[in-house]
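Researcher: I'd like a structural prediction for the single chain below. Treat it as a standalone chain; there are no partners to consider.
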Amino acid sequence: MGTHARGGLGRLALGSVAEQVFRQADCLVLTVGPGSSENSLMETKEAARPFLLATDFGPASLQAFSYAASFADRFGAKLVVLHVLPPAPLPEGFHWSTTGDLMQMREQAEIASRRQFQKMILPNVHDETAIEFIVKFGIASDQILQACHTLKSGLLILGLNRAEHVETASHLPWSMAHKIVCGASCPVLTMKAAASQSANS
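Model: Treating it as a single chain, here is the predicted structure.
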């Protein structure tokens, strides 16, 4: 489906139809926003651009990984897995009196993220899948959109947690999923976590 990226008062009054659909649908939803490339993945004769999967290592994004890897293999694209951490990640047991160096905290957080990637994602990667893992620090939606633009991604894949009050959530101007779908420079494929997984997350 397409979205015209309504914002401001228009979105507060009418909500986002696209977001209500991809939050409620029990199937994959491909949303094409106003910034998406006009070239179809099926029709382009150029080499496939990288596919980007944003992950927080939660059930929804892990479920999305199997689809992301399958589509990347199908189109011969590299799969880039992005994990976004807070600007100042605080390790467990952190005390400012003993460890106050921001660069050191980021380094430790990135190492921990790479271990999660190796443990939770790499074992499920086929030998033929070209995959890269990157870690960024900042606001998740901003970093995802920046990576999408920098990589010139052909497809962005997002796993979504199930929302209980979809109609209300779709009216919130700070909804991250809506911001990403509307601002992405490529189509965005969204899928919800299974009900049992969402209940446990």
